[in-house]
Amino acid sequence: MHRRILSLFLIGFIGIVFINWGCTKLDTTNLGSDLLPIVDNVNTFADTFFINAQQKEYEDTTYVVNSDDHALGYISNDPLFGKTTANVYLQLKPNTFPFAFGNKDSLIGLGLDSVVLCLFYKGYWGDSNVIQTLQVSEVVDNEFKDSLFKNWRVTATPPNTGSVVSPPVNIDIRRLGDYMRYANIKDSVRSQIRIKLNADYASRLFNSDSTSSGSGNHAFFSDSVFRKEFNGLAVKAIGAGNALMYVNLADTNTKLEVHFRVKNAGKIDTIYKSFKLSTNDFGVSVRKSSTANYINRDKSGSPSSIPNGNEIYLQTQPGTYASLTIPQLSGYSNRIIHRAEIIIEQIPDNPYYDSAFVAPNYLYLDLKDTVNVTPVLYKPIYYDLNPNTFYDPDYNTGLPYFPTGGTDFSYFGGYAQRKPGPLGGSIIYYNINISRYIQRMLISQGANYEMRLFPAFDFHYPQYSTAYLPFNNSVALGRVRVGSGTNPNYTMRLRIIYSPIK
């Protein structure tokens, strides 16, 4: 569901790079592994540092591209995080121009049956027991019409819309996995949201193909003319619901079905032709389709809008993050680090809503950049994202700034796990392995960076590249309330297992 991310010539100087990053006789190859010595307070010791954590609003630059799953729906009552609205905008069109439905002479007296917008359903997040209500409008936005290769930021002003082209449609999320029959019960489909469009819009579309005559027709003559007449469609969540549904626009099961009747060997038959999302590059007759996913968070009046110092509210982008500092690491003497991990624990709430609005699958951790300070920027954490790939978060040695193999979660951690809670029941928790980073910091007595913790969908390091790097969460999926470093029961902390240097 995600998109984007050493050459052989780099291998020759990797040894030189390691020397430049800090020469040491300590072999850190196996640091942070699961084969840890027992803490006996004779040869092996453990220190625990409480973490200063402050909740922040993410200044969101999140982008959802065509191939990503898009969020769609309305959350009316998340007891911890308030409301969320997610709307989808898309252009569906023929795969070639000029386009015609068929010989109009054979359609006399028969013709159009219906036009149905179909969205390929991938899953949901939230309370599926509440019916969702969706409605389709036309997009009337020149920027959307011509936004070739533009990705719309999810929190930006959405494309302008005009006429409503469907009635309100109630969606029971619990039934989307069932088979539905259509086309006179001859065909069936599952995992598809189907919305029948108004007769006026359907007629205008059907009568605008390249064989039609009369003023205002011929919209199917070329891609540019089609985009002018049929700018796109907006699917909006209105009025009801308490969950987000996830749809994939690039899948072939997302389409605009035009059903019409023809005579076939003297018999009347109903057939359909489909318009789909175009992923073509510039220079071909059918240009890449525009898409957008507008997501609005409204936390007003919810606990997440007024957190106390013992709580941190983390919400997957577009959402929130936590700023972490560990002052005790400054001046912490050199030693052999066997394991250094940040421990983050959920503060449980209402069991029903915690099970409906599940915690993010993954948390990500990076460092506040102390070189590029205006505006405030961040960079990847050193060493621990992937111990099998050399990378340079400062991007000044010729190595990539982010591991080309992506994050190794089996080493780095950061994924949701479950354990018994200190006050009973079970809780979600995350362990993030920063052993190598801490070891190198102690060897060099280098900077003790402020860190950023958040449930990422993607992230961006503009001082190095315009690229947005994908992470393993779906957009807007997941939220969790965790303890800060001052929480008496669910304490955010750094635990270090070490041996003294003799």
Provide an overview of this structure.
There is one protein chain. This protein is mostly beta strands. The protein folds into two domains: 8-32 and 40-61 and 317-499, no CATH class; 69-298, no CATH class. The chain has seven helices and 28 strands. The strands form six sheets. Strands 3, 4, 5, 6, 7, 8, 11, 12, 13, 14, 15 and 16 form a twelve-stranded antiparallel β-sheet that branches. A hairpin with a 4-residue loop joins β9 (180-182) and β10. Residues 1-33 have low confidence and may be disordered.
In short:
Helices cover 9% and strands 35% of the residues.
Produce the secondary structure layout.
Layout: H1 14-20, E1 45-50, E2 52-57, E3 69-78, E4 82-90, E5 111-126, E6 132-139, H2 142-145, E7 161-164, E8 169-171, E9 180-182, E10 187-189, E11 192-196, H3 199-206, H4 223-229, E12 233-237, E13 242-248, E14 255-264, E15 267-275, E16 291-298, E17 311-315, E18 320-325, E19 336-345, H5 351-356, E20 364-368, E21 378-380, H6 409-412, E22 417-420, E23 426-433, H7 435-444, E24 451-454, E25 458-460, E26 468-470, E27 479-483, E28 493-499
Antiparallel strand pairs: 1-28, 2-18, 3-4, 3-13, 4-12, 4-16, 5-11, 5-13, 5-14, 6-7, 6-8, 6-12, 9-10, 14-15, 17-27, 18-24, 19-23, 19-28, 20-21, 20-24, 22-23, 25-26
What attributes characterize this protein structure?
single chain; 502 residues; mainly beta; 2 domains; 12-stranded antiparallel β-sheet; 5-stranded antiparallel β-sheet; 7 helices; 35% strand; disordered N terminus
